[in-house]
User: Fold this.
Amino acid sequence: MRIALIDTSHIHYSVEIVNSLAVQNELLYVVSSTAAEEKLGTDWKKFLNPAVTVLDFHHRGFKKTGTYLELAGLFRRIYRFGPDVIHVQSVEDYSSTIFQFLLKRFPTVLTIHDPGYHAGEEGRYRKDHTYMRDLGRKLADQIIVHGEALKKELVSSAGFDIARIHVVPHPALWTAARRAISDSHPEDEKILLFFGRIFEYKGLRYMLEAFPLITARVPDARLVIAGRGKDLDPYRETIKEDSRIMLIEGHVSPDEVSRLFSRASVVVLPYIEATQSGVVALAYAAGKPVIATKVGALPEAVDDGETGYLIEPRDTDGIARASVILLSDAALRRDMGRAAFQKAATRLSGDAIARGTLKAYESAINVRACA
Assistant:
């Protein structure tokens, strides 16, 4: 099968897919090298399957003339490639919908990472963005989401035909964790890691409220907060006042990401709302147990009591209890870490995800053939 996979944002995710799909298929990877370098390092291409053909897309924004000139050349290359199917990753600008619209002669699969807007983000996007997002979803022949809960959300909130939606789990992020799974950065047995975008729905407030309860039981526990986001400001003073809390603010380099996950004992996701999470996928690839809330598709990703613990959102006591258990019991923590790694290597492996993705491609091709 000839596949064109287009992604300008979710590089960690799409690299895992293209590497596996390219084993038995012809793969054209349309990607922003600038985004790839930011997320995976300047040497990111060395982690690609050599069979993958890369077509670079320098996304300058749609108000700049150069973007349209580049798009024209890009589409000529894609048309010459003659894909059997186009796979587009949804992003937070217009590009995914524009790609779908201009390539609509080909069967199209769209991965929707977030069916709706997150808590606190409702006013972030203009009406025209919502219109373009919804148009892109209508243009897709088939849709991929990362959990049954997300499938139900699309069906109930937007009236999607359930037959169009395929559930394919988020793959383990082996490439992003490539140094974390080595012995270059040994684990520190008392580090809790909160990683990623710092927005209201990520629940940093509840992690910070739980931390004094944790240190009352585990005095040498430490909390590392790494990432960036508009909702950090209310918590700066709390973070500053506790020397056991380390804030790494801003863009976290690929090498630093690997070091953080390697050093961490436990990865905590105290989200009050979510769809799925690449943080879980990265933690599993690094062999780390997670503490996550029962929101979105996270309960489908975390095997409670096996690869980590599930708690209710906003449950400060629950965060503290689970953290104390894992920080106090090294054997349990390592057993869970091994189970997480095993899940990453099997159910969340690139090959397993590729098989589910190919089924969505075949469905899209069949839908067009019958139209």
Q: What stands out?
A: DSSP finds 14 helices and 13 strands in the chain. The longest helix spans residues 350-370.
